[in-house]
UniProtKB/TrEMBL annotation:
Every CASTOR ACT domain range: 72-128
Listed transmembrane segments: none
Record-annotated DUF2241 domain positions: 2-70
InterPro entries xrefs: ACT-like_dom_sf (IPR045865), CASTOR_ACT_dom (IPR027795), DUF2241 (IPR018717)
Pfam name, any one: ACT_7
Gene source species: Rheinheimera salexigens
Name of this chain's protein: Transporter
Length: 133
């Protein structure tokens, strides 16, 4: 199953859902195998270090440093990894409301991490975008 590529269809069908947990972005040295016990939601290896997205509770319990607390909004539409414009439309809608968006594209869905204090406003903005198509 390859996912949807047509932008209007993606936006109208995205059904954004605010997830319950709070997450943080941490940077650590070493390999992912050294940190699997943290059960990271996602990871990305950069020259400067390994970025982990983990629950706030997990990071706090492990003594990991972080500088922001985020909520996850999942777009419940199967977007193709080759789709053009969804990230721009979503981030543009949030930017218009003064909300920073950290977008993570996974195989089936896109996930947007927004500062916890802006999560409700972000969900509302994305719902408005979806309803407006």
């Amino acid at each position: 199953m390859s996912g949807i590529t047509e932008l209007a269809t993606l936006i109208s069908a995205m059904q954004p859902k605010l997830m319950a947990n709070e997450f943080v972005f941490c940077t650590v040295q070493g390999e992912l195998a050294d940190y699997v016990w943290l059960n990271p939601l996602a990871s990305f290896s950069e020259v400067e270090g390994l970025t982990l997205i983990v629950s706030k509770t997990t990071a706090s319990d492990a003594g990991l440093a972080f500088s922001g607390i985020f909520k996850q909004i999942t777009l419940n539409v199967h977007s193709s990894l080759n789709a053009v414009g969804l990230t721009a439309a979503v981030s543009g809608q949030l930017a218009a409301k003064g909300i920073s968006a950290n977008v993570f594209a996974a195989y089936y869905h896109d996930h947007i991490f927004v500062a916890s204090e802006h999560a409700t406003a972000a969900l509302s903005a994305l719902t408005d975008l979806s309803d407006g198509v």
